[in-house]
Amino acid sequence: MSTLVRKGSLFASPGRDGLYPILSVRQLSAYYGELRALFDISFDVNPGEVLSIIGANGAGKSTLLRSIVGMMNRGKAAHISGSIEFEGRRLDRLTTEKIVDAGATMVPEGRMLFTRMTVAENLLVGAHLPKARASAHDKLAEMFDFFPRLAERRNQVVSQMSGGEQQMVAIARALMSSPSLVLFDELSLGLAPIIVDDIYEKVAEINKSGVTCVVIEQDMRRALAVSSHVLVMAEGRVVLEGAPGKLSEADITDAYFGSHRAGAVA
């Protein structure tokens, strides 16, 4: 684990559970112009875990993920302060492209696919960076093995696919860059429960393969079922944090709806 912390790291000592984190966020604030959306957020993500971030609409969850992958580094229009470190490297100073190349990527809310392109073409977009391009066709075959339904529809235009199939395309596209950290933004949004079950089974398989996962989820029970650690957000702040087995449902419910003010750590 110590190899994750490089010379010059801000966080060169073990953190939660005595592990060196793969991702460390410290005093992160985010702004849309003059509007402040995140307030001094700090947390760690340990290697190989599933961290779930839950909260109501408007809690700041998506802004947090956008900050991690460089989508809030847009000057005065959208900007951040604080630090984000991934495997010993500062991310808050990098572009989204360089962050993906470093090994951290996101499955965005709403999927953001190229709907007039085929499944295969969308997946190859995920391997456009030089480091991933060399093995793109091998990775494409791997994704079709992982998602057999996509293999059957590899030449189908994405706009003709169901919401669940499109979500599979979005996940597979993110995996095309061979990331060590994947951030999933609202995986279950707009999908039927049975499809959500299938998607979360795939997330579990991705995690078992050694990929660290961060999942944004509004469904509290589903988040607790899949995660090894949980953050609850309200009004741009982390208001509760802990292992699922050590947090009571009452505490989580209070935090979710904004009535829990203390940032407890279990």
From TrEMBL:
<dbReference type="InterPro" id="IPR003439">
    <property type="entry name" value="ABC_transporter-like_ATP-bd"/>
</dbReference>
<keyword id="KW-0029">Amino-acid transport</keyword>
<dbReference type="GO" id="GO:0016887">
    <property type="term" value="F:ATP hydrolysis activity"/>
</dbReference>
<dbReference type="InterPro" id="IPR003593">
    <property type="entry name" value="AAA+_ATPase"/>
</dbReference>
<feature type="domain" description="ABC transporter">
    <location>
        <begin position="23"/>
        <end position="260"/>
    </location>
</feature>
<keyword id="KW-0813">Transport</keyword>
<comment type="similarity">
    <text>Belongs to the ABC transporter superfamily.</text>
</comment>
<dbReference type="InterPro" id="IPR052156">
    <property type="entry name" value="BCAA_Transport_ATP-bd_LivF"/>
</dbReference>
<dbReference type="GO" id="GO:0015807">
    <property type="term" value="P:L-amino acid transport"/>
</dbReference>
<dbReference type="GO" id="GO:0005524">
    <property type="term" value="F:ATP binding"/>
</dbReference>
<dbReference type="InterPro" id="IPR017871">
    <property type="entry name" value="ABC_transporter-like_CS"/>
</dbReference>
<dbReference type="GO" id="GO:0015658">
    <property type="term" value="F:branched-chain amino acid transmembrane transporter activity"/>
</dbReference>
<protein>
    <submittedName>
        <fullName>ABC transporter ATP-binding protein</fullName>
    </submittedName>
</protein>
<dbReference type="InterPro" id="IPR027417">
    <property type="entry name" value="P-loop_NTPase"/>
</dbReference>
<keyword id="KW-0067">ATP-binding</keyword>
<keyword id="KW-0614">Plasmid</keyword>
<dbReference type="Pfam" id="PF00005">
    <property type="entry name" value="ABC_tran"/>
</dbReference>
<keyword id="KW-0547">Nucleotide-binding</keyword>
